[in-house]
């Protein structure tokens, strides 16, 4: 059946609530309204106030009570209404949620899922478009995942709820309405795997969440210019799937990480470092990062200038020290191995 | 609010069961109110600011529906709170508004187009906070409250006579930040008044799901400050109560929480869907308590305004709306390079490089990579490596 990402996530919550009486869903406006993005639409009507309910506006309390519930057998799935509104809960997430298993010598695990709509591109005013993944991924003990489409949305949320450890479940909000065929209740790849979305032999684009469709578009554009781009959807930011990523980059010899977040100290820095460590002798060029600028997320009228688009990705590919100087827009025939023909510079647009 | 002795503890009475009201629904004066009514000139100013404010609010709502604002959280029905509060401030006082409170900013004299900069999507805040003594509109709920406490602390240190009014919603009172700010304010005896606009709803969540306290004003007692309830659709009462609380604050009696009982007549914003969570007829009784009708009735009955004065207020509202429409129609795109201008006091080298990257992108030229123009740099005496030009080796 064809579902949007928001609908697929709704489906996953519904199936989890049906199958496991210990699952509870709560957060701000997730009850009768169905959440501001409608991800919890209809759940209170179907499962009652006991299982899906509105919390007071208190993010720290939401995560704190979820920790308590999980200490006593429930599997809470809580929502932070927007990325930046998850910050009041940061202490509970970092000091307790992430550490409880460790602090208790493994006696107490916390199967809590914190759902966070994240990222920009929806014309939101300030505080509604942050990419907060690096804060979470930096915190040992948290599993941080992000689907880039409806099929993964369903499967990854089901897996996240089933996991015995806390999961920060990042939902790319600008993809909420994008539709695809979903075989729910079918599962896609395992929660901790990266997946090759498009095969290519010249360069690997490493993307996740909102930038996966952009990376695929860039790959298509580069293909027209004779450059075969492989696109890996990281899916799991922590833990990191070194095996899939390393195999890809060793094959292509070039890599670019693409994310929306500011580049400095961003998640891409970790990816670039790991890839360099694992693939040094296979690399033809430094691993590059493409991201947002190192600025606070801009207002709606300027966000398109900040977000990495196809052109910024193609420019990065062009800087990968092609011996024959590929630039986007080059003639077909393209790069070949270590001595490629030219991908051509961005067409003036 | 009536006090028989001057000891600070004497302020700590429980809030009255009935909200304080000076003007009843049909515009008659309520006898025996515990606060003095504003004088006739003030009442006329309140009415004028509400009429103009509502016209502004309706205009902004229309622009949002036309897609010319990114979003608009309406003040419709809450004008008495926003105007009554803002007009009680002295020129040197500060206002700490939220996203909901555009009308309070207009009432305080901020250029309406600058008020809309945030919601138009041009920038995060359009006016000069210092000049207008208005903090930025605050979206992360309740986080503005402690800023007011700190600002007045600094004012006291500098010997300035400054009080502050914090606007917040009923839902925001559930946040930890609200509790911390209330505690700081009471502990420091800060000259801060917290005006909670209890409009009954926080997006889709009714106030009964936010708090088990008998009223939100009751919370004040626990922090050691008075809590007062006021009819939030009675501009005279809101003004009087805020005015008195500010006076108490100024003479060193500390902060007050005021809960103004009102109603959000419109959806949360233009992108909300209230039919999912509340019945239309719930709002009917509130429409009958319209703050503008009520004050108009009083002022007319007492001969303080006539048709000509009312027509002049309406006219002023129309002029302001037309001005907003015209000026927003110009719709200049913000300068792309403004993205980098105000992140730090001076632009560090790395950011200047990114600015060059954006320039290249906008010209359709390939991005040159890591080497680019140098940043403007810190003042020389502070300069370290981060502002140096990268040397090509
Ligand atoms: C810290 C934080 N959490 C969540 C939100 C999302 N949010 C925006 S408005 C709102 C409801 C606020 O209700 P209330 O305080 O009663 O003010 P009102 O909008 O009714 O004026 C919510 C939950 C936010 N802005 N900030």
From TrEMBL, chain A:
Its cofactor is thiamine diphosphate. Residues 328-349 are annotated as: Disordered. Its EC number is 1.2.4.4. The keyword Oxidoreductase applies. Transmembrane segments: none annotated. It comes from Murinocardiopsis flavida. GO terms for molecular function: branched-chain 2-oxo acid dehydrogenase activity; magnesium ion binding. The lineage of its organism: Bacteria, Bacillati, Actinomycetota, Actinomycetes, Streptosporangiales. SUPFAM superfamilies: Thiamin diphosphate-binding fold (THDP-binding) (SSF52518), TK C-terminal domain-like (SSF52922). Residues 3-178 form the Transketolase-like pyrimidine-binding domain. InterPro entries: THDP-binding, Transketo_C/PFOR_II, Transketolase-like_Pyr-bd, Transketolase_C. Residues 338-349 have a biased composition (Low complexity). This is 3-methyl-2-oxobutanoate dehydrogenase (2-methylpropanoyl-transferring). The keyword Oxidoreductase applies. GO terms for biological process: branched-chain amino acid catabolic process; response to nutrient. Keywords: Oxidoreductase, Pyruvate.
UniProtKB/TrEMBL annotation, chain B:
GO terms for molecular function: magnesium ion binding; oxidoreductase activity, acting on the aldehyde or oxo group of donors, disulfide as acceptor. SUPFAM superfamilies: Thiamin diphosphate-binding fold (THDP-binding). Keywords: Oxidoreductase, Pyruvate, Thiamine pyrophosphate. One of its GO terms (biological process) is branched-chain amino acid catabolic process. InterPro entries: Alpha-ketoacid_DH_E1_comp, DH_E1, PdhA/BkdA, THDP-binding. Residues 48-318 form the Dehydrogenase E1 component domain. The keyword Oxidoreductase applies. Its cofactor is thiamine diphosphate. It holds the Pfam family E1_dh. Residues 369-382 have a biased composition (Low complexity). It comes from the Bacteria. This is Pyruvate dehydrogenase E1 component alpha subunit. It comes from Murinocardiopsis flavida.
């Amino acid at each position: 059946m064809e579902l949007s990402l928001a609908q697929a996530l709704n489906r996953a919550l519904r199936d989890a609530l049906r199958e496991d009486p210990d699952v509870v869903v709560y957060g701000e406006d997730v009850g009768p309204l169905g959440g501001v993005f409608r991800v919890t639409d209809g759940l209170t009507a179907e499962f009652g106030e006991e299982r899906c309910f509105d919390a007071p506006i208190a993010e720290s309390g939401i995560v704190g009570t979820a920790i308590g519930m999980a200490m006593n057998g429930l599997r809470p799935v809580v929502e932070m209404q927007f990325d930046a509104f998850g910050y009041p809960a940061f202490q509970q997430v970092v000091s307790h949620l992430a550490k409880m298993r460790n602090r208790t010598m493994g006696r107490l695990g916390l199967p809590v899922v914190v759902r966070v709509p994240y990222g920009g591109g929806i014309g939101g005013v300030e505080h509604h478009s942050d990419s907060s993944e690096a804060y979470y991924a930096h915190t040992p003990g948290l599993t941080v995942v992000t689907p880039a489409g409806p099929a993964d949305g369903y499967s990854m949320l089901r897996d996240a709820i089933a996991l015995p450890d806390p999961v920060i479940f990042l939902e790319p909000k600008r993809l909420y309405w994008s539709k695809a065929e979903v075989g729910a209740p079918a599962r896609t790849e395992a929660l901790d795997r990266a997946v090759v979305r498009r095969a290519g032999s010249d360069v690997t684009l490493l993307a996740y969440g909102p930038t996966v469709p952009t990376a695929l578009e860039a790959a298509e554009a580069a293909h027209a210019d004779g450059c075969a781009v492989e696109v890996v959807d990281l899916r799991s930011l922590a833990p990191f799937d070194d095996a899939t990523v390393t195999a890809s980059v060793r094959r292509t010899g070039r890599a670019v990480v693409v994310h929306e977040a500011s580049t400095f100290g961003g998640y891409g820095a970790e990816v670039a470092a790991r890839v360099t460590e694992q693939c040094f002798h296979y690399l033809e060029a430094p691993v590059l990062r493409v991201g947002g600028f190192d600025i606070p997320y801009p207002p709606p009228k300027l966000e398109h200038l900040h977000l990495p688009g196809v052109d910024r990705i193609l420019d990065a590919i062009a800087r990968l020290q092609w011996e024959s100087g590929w630039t986007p827009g080059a003639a077909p025939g393209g790069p070949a191995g270590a001595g490629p023909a030219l991908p051509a510079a961005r067409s003036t647009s | 609010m009536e006090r028989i002795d001057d000891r600070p503890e004497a302020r700590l009475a429980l809030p009255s069961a009935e909200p304080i009201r000076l003007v009843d629904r049909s515009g008659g004066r309520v006898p025996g109110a515990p606060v003095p009514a504003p004088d006739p000139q003030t009442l006329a100013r309140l009415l004028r600011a509400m009429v103009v404010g509502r016209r502004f609010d309706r205009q902004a709502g229309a622009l949002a529906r036309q897609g010319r604002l990114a979003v608009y959280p309406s003040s419709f029905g809450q004008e008495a709170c926003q105007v009554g509060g803002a007009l009680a401030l002295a020129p040197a006082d500060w206002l700490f508004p939220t996203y909901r409170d555009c009308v309070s900013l207009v009432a305080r004299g901020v250029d309406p187009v600058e008020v809309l900069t945030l919601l138009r999507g041009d920038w995060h805040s359009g006016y000069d906070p210092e000049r207008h003594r208005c903090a930025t509109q605050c979206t992360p709920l309740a986080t503005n409250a402690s800023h007011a406490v700190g600002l007045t602390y600094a004012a006291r240190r500098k010997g300035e006579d400054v009080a502050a009014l914090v606007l917040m919603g009923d839902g925001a009172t559930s946040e930890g930040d609200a509790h911390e700010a209330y505690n700081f304010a009471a502990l420091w005896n800060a000259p801060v008044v917290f005006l909670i606009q209890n409009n009954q709803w926080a997006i889709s969540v009714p106030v009964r799901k936010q708090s088990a306290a008998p009223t939100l004003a009751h919370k004040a007692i626990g922090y050691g400050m008075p809590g007062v309830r006021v009819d939030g659709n009675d501009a005279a009462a809101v003004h009087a109560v805020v005015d008195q609380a500010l006076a108490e604050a100024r003479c060193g009696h500390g902060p007050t929480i005021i809960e103004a009982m009102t109603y959000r007549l419109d959806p949360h914003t233009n992108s909300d869907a209230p039919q999912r969570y509340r019945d239309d007829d719930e709002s009917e009784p509130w429409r009958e308590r319209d703050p503008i009708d009520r004050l108009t009735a009083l002022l007319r009955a007492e001969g303080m305004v006539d048709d000509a004065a009312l027509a002049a207020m309406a006219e002023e509202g129309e002029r302001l709306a037309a001005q907003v429409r015209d000026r927003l129609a110009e719709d200049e795109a913000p300068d792309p390079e403004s993205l980098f201008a105000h992140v730090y006091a001076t632009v560090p080298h790395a950011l200047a490089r990114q600015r060059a990257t954006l320039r290249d992108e906008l010209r359709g030229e390939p991005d040159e990579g890591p080497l680019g123009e140098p940043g403007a740099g810190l003042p020389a005496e502070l300069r370290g490596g981060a502002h140096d030009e990268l040397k090509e080796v």
